[in-house]
Specification:
By secondary structure, the protein is α/β, with parallel strands linked by helices. 45% of the residues lie in helices and 16% in strands. The chain is globular.
């Protein structure tokens, strides 16, 4: 069935032109001469998208947008505005419109904006049981203004070849947004390859990303493709990009400049066609200032930047997330739990969620496993959410992070600032220790 669009304009020539252009794109289009007529049609039938003029008699585009979104929240609205009324169009966007296009119309721009708006709509889907709309990236759920802006950016850049840098705290869903960018791109039929750069030393990361030839090092008994080659034609996601060392930064910069790689121990340059999406929970701009991250690589990575808000800054999304996770984990465990009680939801809303969405999901998974009825109650939640722990007993005690920092400082002092000896004592690699020292702001002599 063709995607149904609604065109609203009091000018007959504009209505006919838009109808013809959009029908040629394969959409089913219905045109209305007024906002009132459009609302009447929307009451009878569901539409995926509406294009409305801003300036119309009786009911302007802002009022039309508000009314349509109130009736069909998932419907996307694009407003058309003449020169001089951009402020009005921006006001419409504040009331729920996806974007605006200017008059006189650029037909290619209109077709492109429609595609982007429908892509953003496809990022959301209605749950099978008629519950609140959720996003198909599994846990990137929400309708807060910050998340709507994220969806809008994903829709704008998904089909672009540009490199994207995703910023956000741990647990905010950076890999899921990267996967959404791939899934809604022209590369969706090819591979999406995710790499945790922070878990590997530079030497291991190099062989993983670029591959190696036989005899390159002990154990290299044959040629092996790297992940850049595996992702050829698709997307590679470089998570925790802020943790890579100077050597890998230089090699990665060449990849982004020339789009070619050389296997470890090899002599030939290999051309690749891959889109790079990177992510970090660190402040790369600060690392550049400190001299630990290359400025040229930083600017190559941040062609487009998407910032994911922490859960504490989008608390209005917690009910949606909680209900979604309840349905998800109830289905996995064959439990009959269907929803969250108001008391339990109140506790979820009050918690600071330092681990963000990942922490919330684990909390709900545990509660579903312990639940005995069809609803998740406050008693099913972990004790720390119920206030069952007397935190006054720990008043003044250092946090776990502070204990780690103090211990590292102690080991460094005992070794006279010798990083290699300290790493041996701690049982970790030198590179890992250097990352920890930067994280805790400790310096060696």
């Amino acid at each position: 069935m063709s995607t149904r669009l609604l065109v609203i304009d009091d000018d007959a020539v504009t209505r006919e032109l838009l109808t013809e252009v959009l029908q040629s794109e394969g959409y089913a289009v219905e045109a209305c001469e007024s906002g009132g007529a459009a609302l009447a049609r929307a009451a009878e039938e569901a539409f995926a998208l509406a294009i409305t003029d801003v300036r119309m008699p009786e009911m302007d585009g802002i009022a039309v947008t508000q009314a349509l979104k109130a009736r069909q929240p998932e419907l996307q609205v694009i407003v058309m505005t003449a020169f001089g009324s951009v402020e009005t169009a921006v006001e419409a966007i504040r009331h729920g419109a996806f974007d605006y296009v200017s008059k006189p119309m650029n037909l290619d721009e209109i077709k492109s904006t429609v595609r982007r708006a429908l892509t953003a709509r496809d990022l959301s889907e209605t749950s099978p049981d008629g519950g609140p709309p959720i996003v198909d990236t599994s846990v990137v759920v929400g309708r807060s203004p910050a998340m709507v802006e994220v969806y809008r950016t994903v829709a704008r850049v998904a089909t672009s070849p540009s490199t994207v840098l995703i910023l956000g705290e741990s647990g905010t869903g950076k890999e899921l947004i990267a996967a959404a960018l791939h899934r809604h791109s022209d590369r969706a039929s090819r591979r999406f390859v995710a790499v945790d750069c922070g878990s590997l030393t530079d030497s291991l990361l190099e062989s993983e990303l670029f591959g190696y030839v036989r005899g390159a090092f002990t154990g290299a008994v044959g040629d092996k493709k790297g992940l850049f080659e595996e992702a050829n034609g698709g997307t590679i996601f470089l998570d925790e990009i802020g943790d890579i060392g100077p050597s890998m930064q230089a090699k990665l910069l060449r990849v982004l400049q020339e789009y070619e790689i050389k296997r470890v121990g090899g002599q030939d340059w290999i051309r690749i066609d891959v889109r790079v999406v990177a992510a970090t929970n660190r402040n790369l701009a600060l690392l550049v200032t400190e001299g630990t991250f290359r400025e040229d690589l930083y600017y190559r990575l941040k062609v487009v930047t998407i910032t994911l808000p922490p859960l504490r800054d989008r608390r209005e999304d917690i009910p949606l997330l909680a209900e979604y996770f309840v349905r998800r984990h109830a289905a996995r465990s064959t439990k009959a739990v269907t929803h969250v009680t108001p008391d339990a939801l109140a506790l979820l809303m009050e918690h600071p969620w330092p681990g963000n969405i990942r922490e919330l999901e684990h909390c709900i998974e545990r509660a579903v496993a312990l639940a005995s009825g069809q609803v998740l109650t406050a008693e099913d939640l972990a004790p720390e959410l119920q206030g069952g722990i007397d935190t006054t007993l720990f008043r003044g005690a250092p946090t776990l992070e502070e204990v780690k920092r103090r211990y590292l400082a102690h080991v460094l002092q005992e070794t006279g600032g010798n990083v290699s000896r300290a790493a041996t004592i701690l049982g970790i690699e030198r590179r890992s220790l250097q990352r920890m020292l930067r994280r805790y702001g400790l310096r060696t002599n």
